[in-house]
Design goal:
The chain is an all-alpha fold and 364 residues long. It has a domain at 251-364: Serine Threonine Protein Phosphatase 5, Tetratricopeptide repeat (Alpha Horseshoe), CATH 1.25.40. It has helices at 2-11, 31-38, 51-56, 61-69, 84-91, 95-103, 118-125, 129-137, 152-159, 163-171, 186-193, 197-205, 220-227, 231-239, 254-261, 265-273, 288-295, 299-307, 322-329, 333-341, 357-360, and strands spanning 21-24, 43-46. A two-stranded parallel ribbon has the order 1-2. Strand 1 (21-24), helix 2 and strand 2 form a beta-alpha-beta unit. Helix 5 (84-91) packs parallel to helix 7 and helix 15 packs antiparallel against helix 16 (265-273). The protein is elongated. The termini are far apart.
């Protein structure tokens, strides 16, 4: 039956432009061997060799012992190249499972297809620091990086809310100023993604550079302003000396990034109170309130910028005002309404002699 089905599948196509996967669920009738011998183009997955993955998610070590003793492959890989140890490090609640896999000989520094090791999986996903300790004692490379250059500190910074993970890594000698492929440091990852200000505080205590620059000359505070909706993170960076008026290589300031990308108006308020200049211009002559009008759908950001002292009628590139940018681009009419409420002058004309209303017809 199986042979006939596969022959029918391949008879329908002269050129194989798809993949056929057959899963062998512990068959004993020779069908798996038939597939392997007769259809080499089929990917055959034998479940009896992959039962370790289920055990890796089971907090009871005895289950894993029984499966391994029955012949489960210790370092078998799933379709993403993950081993049971990687799954256990990332998801298991019991560190004894990881200890058992390592004791049985699991490869502590195995890599997934994306170059992620068990230590990196644990750092980014498991809030229990015992997993990190066990892996390090078993020889896991504390400085290992994935293909994007992320080390364990970076995985923890971006995804793990437990600062104790950072402390264990720091005691092992991990570098708090390591760089990924794009020049970002662990502090930048934390600034962009963590919801826990204490994570930022720990990196600063370890000696992380609060004004480090990435390849695009972005800083940790820029990362927080652009991506993180928790204002406490930006506040923590400012308290520790972050440059509130730093600019990236394109001349975009911290406040411009917050105005353009962050839906939380409190970020703008925190930066303004910290000394960010509200009318700083980018290389093209644009300002923070123009950036908000162009791309931020939250009208509260406009109000926050106006309260911070932004000039709503300042002219930018080609004599455009924030109201013109909003008229042409915003998907939320409340942004236009907010600009008008804080004093935007609809009569102003740009270098082409056009007013904001002349652009509204081009807004989809």
């Amino acid at each position: 039956m199986l042979r006939a089905c596969l022959e029918s599948v391949f008879a329908e196509s002269d050129e194989l432009n798809f993949e056929v996967i057959v899963i062998d669920n512990a068959s004993e009738d020779g069908s798996a061997d038939m597939v392997a011998d007769t259809f080499p183009q089929v990917r055959l997955i034998r479940n009896t060799r992959n039962v370790g993955f289920a055990a890796a998610n089971n907090p009871e070590p005895k289950v894993l012992v029984e499966l391994l003793d029955a012949g489960a492959e210790l370092d078998a890989r799933d379709l993403g190249g993950l081993t049971p140890l990687m799954w256990a490090a990332a998801q298991n609640a019991n560190p004894e499972v990881v200890a058992l896999l390592l004791k049985r000989g699991a490869e502590a520094n195995a890599r997934s297809q994306k170059g992620v090791t068990p230590l990196l999986f644990a750092a980014g996903n498991n809030a229990n620091p015992d997993f990190i300790t066990i892996l390090l004692k078993a020889g896991a490379d504390r400085d290992a990086k994935n293909r994007s250059g992320w080390n364990a500190f970076m995985f923890a910074a971006a995804n793990n809310p437990n600062p104790e993970i950072l402390r264990v890594l720091h005691r092992s000698g991990a570098d708090p100023n390591a760089r990924s492929a794009d020049g970002w440091t662990p502090l930048m990852r934390a600034a962009a993604h963590t919801s826990t200000p204490e994570v930022v505080r720990e990196f600063l205590r370890f000696g992380a550079d609060v004004n480090a620059r990435g390849d695009e000359q972005e800083t940790p505070l820029m990362a927080a302003a652009r991506f993180n909706t928790n204002a406490a993170v930006a506040r923590e960076l400012l308290r520790n000396g972050a440059d509130q008026n730093a600019r990236d290589k394109n001349g975009v300031s911290v406040l411009m990034w917050a105005a353009a990308s962050n839906p939380n108006p409190e970020i703008v308020s925190v930066l303004a109170r910290g000394g960010a200049y509200p009318d700083a211009r980018g290389k093209n002559g644009d300002t923070a309130i123009m950036a908000a009008a162009l791309s931020n759908p939250n009208p509260e950001v406009v109000y926050a910028l106006a309260k911070a002292g932004a000039d709503v009628n300042m002219k930018g590139p080609r004599g455009w005002t924030a109201l013109m940018f909003a008229a042409l681009n915003t998907q939320n009419p409340e942004v236009v309404a907010a600009l008008l409420r804080v004093g935007a002058d609809a009569r102003i004309r740009n270098r082409e002699g056009r007013r904001a209303i002349d652009y509204a017809g081009g807004n989809p």
